[in-house]
Design brief:
- This protein has 2 helices and no strands.
- It is mainly α and 55 residues long.
- It starts with a helix and ends in a 6-residue tail after the last helix.
């Protein structure tokens, strides 16, 4: 539960920051996050297909 509170607080800080930084910085940050999520999704899908356990 504490993790969720911290995550929501950080989310609020990030959203507040987005309102004050230039659009190019926001787009670059969004691209980095999207790439990170894509890599994570590919690794998860590959791990499930190979039968590897997440534990």
């Amino acid at each position: 539960m504490l993790f969720l509170v911290v995550a929501l607080m950080l989310f609020g800080v990030v959203l507040g920051t987005v309102a004050h930084v230039p659009l190019t910085v926001t787009v670059a940050g969004a691209a980095v996050i999207a790439a990170w999520l894509a890599v994570f999704a590919i690794r998860e899908r590959h791990g499930r297909r190979s039968g590897a356990s997440a534990n």
